[in-house]
Amino acid sequence: MTTQTQAGVIVQVPRDGAVDRNWREDTPPSIASHEVIVERLPAGADGRLGQPEAGEIVMSVLSPETFTAEPEQVQGVVGGAAAGTQALTILVEAAEYLREDELAVVLGAARRSHRLVILRVMADA
């Protein structure tokens, strides 16, 4: 990771979407401490983010609750990814909020893999 991306996880959310609004009122500790970086991206007319332009998609989940319900799955796909330079991308189809415990699962997996992980929230729940 470069000094520009010291964080192991970048979370991409629709600008002014539910997750973005909720985090403005209640910022999770890993974001406040800059362990996790947030990118607020413009959504399409339908309120959804488009498919990522870069990165290797390694997982897609319906909601972030999957991370705490099945942490071994996250650890397996992130930790099991072959060495490479592209970021590993996890797509979340819809979310209203991403909690600290959900972020911690992804952050922990990213730390063990030594690869940048992009967590992309596609739309509001």
Write the layout of secondary structure elements.
Blueprint (H helix, E strand, L loop, with lengths): L8 E6 L3 H8 L3 H4 L3 E6 L14 E6 L3 H5 L1 H9 L8 E5 L7 H14 L3 E5 L4
Parallel strand pairs: 1-2, 1-5, 3-4, 4-5
Structure notes:
The protein is an alpha/beta fold and 125 residues long. The chain has one domain. The protein contains five helices and five strands, in the order E-H-H-E-E-H-H-E-H-E. The protein has helices at 18-25, 29-32, 65-69, 71-79, 100-113; strands at 9-14, 36-41, 56-61, 88-92, 117-121. Strand 4, helix 5 and strand 5 (117-121) form a beta-alpha-beta unit. The longest helix is centred in the last third of the chain and has 14 residues, at 100-113.
Question: Ranges with pLDDT <50 over ≥5 residues?
Answer: 1-5
Please indicate the count of domains. 1
Q: Classify the oligomer.
A: single chain
Rounded to the nearest angstrom, the radius of gyration is 13 Å
User: Can you tell me the overall shape?
Assistant: globular
**Biggest sheet, spatial arrangement of strands:** 2-1-5-4-3
Main traits of this protein?
disordered N terminus; 5 helices; alpha/beta; 125 residues
Compact summary:
This protein has helices spanning 18-25, 29-32, 65-69, 71-79, 100-113; strands at 9-14, 36-41, 56-61, 88-92, 117-121.
